[in-house]
Amino acid sequence: MEKIELKDFRFSGSTLGEVADLRTLDAADKAEMLMSGIDVEERERAGSYLQVDHGRVHCKSLQKGVEVLDIKDALAKYDGLPDYYWTQVDKDKDEFTRSAAENLHGGYFVRTEKGAKVVEPVQSCLFLKGDMIGQNVHNVIIVEDDSELHIITGCSVAHGSKGAAHLGITEIFVGKNAKLTFTMIHNWAESTVVRPRTGGTVQEGGVFINNYVLLKPVKDLQSYPVIRLNGQGAVARFNSVIVAPKGSHVDTGSRIELNAPDTKGEIISRTIASGGTIIARGFIGGNSVPAKGHLECKGLILGGGVIHAIPELLGSVDGVELSHEAAVGKIAQEEIEYLMARGLDEEEATSTIVRGFLNVDIMGLPKELQDVIEATISESEKDMF
Amino acid sequence: MLRIEDLHVKIGEREVLSGINLHIADNETFILFGPNGSGKTTLLMTLMGFGNYEITKGRILFRGHDITHAPIYERARLGVGMSFQRPPTIHGLKTRHLVRMCSRQGEIDVDALARKVNMDEFLERDVNAGFSGGEIKRSELLQLMAQKPYLLLFDEPESGVDLENMKLIGHTVREVLTAGLEPRAGASMKQQRALRRPVSGLIITHTGYILEYLNADRGQVLYNGHLCCEANPRDILDHISQHGYQECVRCLN
């Protein structure tokens, strides 16, 4: 991993202005956004937030029970959000958090009302359009007690980008008996460097499900969300699907802290190196009982590359139950031959096994998004075999 | 249907099959007996075209095509279908999806087929994941029913199967092999047979339970890489269950 020189990027001066209708966006940009799950028609969405480079271009709440704001407006409206803002991520953690703290460009604030079951997802897209742009965003998600929310957040760069840096802070609050499904689709380019910093807490009976999909090349990405299960019976699950083609360096993982009785944490990652490097981390800490955690990281190397799986378990009390399963390998010839005996040629068989391995199904995503992901997988298969 | 001529097969450095000659006619079911390690599974795997089995001599003709060196999927598409004894689990691949892919002749009613072998509740499960012995057999049969091969290769259809499952599996194997041929008004069975596609079977059995459910025409013993003792399968079974394979030792040495 090379050192990222923040001074090489422009952190001011690129704003596009308000776009009232997402359909009027540039066709090439729309295509990139579509690949990260953005529906420009906004038909089945509870709200949208779109930022390009250094400023918001679109922000709308479309359904009752959920508020979607530009973080700057939210800070003004709610007196700086003292109970939330910079409580989950340390402002002084590193130069990237400091950059976001010193020069905030935007980001989304999404909050549900207590008890609101928001059926349709809220979508957000943080887009990098200009060359050598550095983008600082700060997102705050509050899912109030007894409410439910799904956020689909896509991060993307313009086609042909020559370089960009995305630094994003995300702070997540899941209330009592609330449920948040947070689906993040990264759609970067060979030249993009990415440093998300994410932290969150889940209260009593709350559920946090995190889906992460990275199928496109990225120059250098490092991400390690931390979720603390602080209330009894809280549950967190991370599902990740990561492909690293040649030139990609991806250092990613997640950390779950089981801090209350009856909490459960699960981290499942599927990684494929097709020429690039993946460091697949995972950490579950059991600090209260009864508590259960399971970590599963499986990697395939198809066509070169490196996968370094680092599963970690830490138990600090008697009676905690933590387990992990890690594997780095290749597709079993036996499985390919089995499918070939059913009439699939070698390429069809391999592709079927790879899709099964990546198993995007378990994320339970909306159909059109699942289709987009499947299409992206078949495109990236070219590098694999 | 199938003609095997002087087939020699090596696994690694070891010759496992030494000059096999076998002809299976259209609509014929052939039973293969033999002790463990005699090369029965090797013969089936070689017919299907698996990688570890090296053909050093001889050839395999299937419905007029020389498939001796054809890739596995080409054999499958020509109409060779195999029921695996210990198939691998494929994570993330739903049984329903695989069954649909098995049918290359277009859309099939997967649910109706699955009900026939009592597999309707397994369609949304990953292929072979945590399946019991009987469930594996039923899943294999389901895939074969979708695939509709001309030649069915069964490696021990009764292994790991309880009695209740055995009945279902036995009846299904029979149904697949007869391809629905039964007495009915309007057309004699002879006329039906002339019209429908031919189906033949090559079945490996240890216990012979499967013979309770189907009419096998011929059988042979594979011993130490050689085929011998062609006879009625029931007679072979009867002899083996009384005397074991001693006679093969006497006969072949």
UniProtKB/TrEMBL annotation, chain B:
Domain ABC transporter intervals = 2-249
Query: What Pfam families does this protein map onto?
Result: ABC_tran
Ordered alphabetically, the record's keywords are:
ATP-binding, Nucleotide-binding
| Membrane as UniProt keyword | no
**What CDD domains does this protein's entry cite?**
ABC_FeS_Assembly
Q: Which GO terms describe its molecular function?
A: ATP binding; ATP hydrolysis activity
Q: Which PROSITE patterns does the record match to this protein?
A: ABC_TRANSPORTER_2 (PS50893)
- Record family assignment: Belongs to the ABC transporter superfamily. Ycf16 family.
- The protein's name is ABC transporter ATP-binding protein
Q: Which organism is it from?
A: Solidesulfovibrio carbinolicus
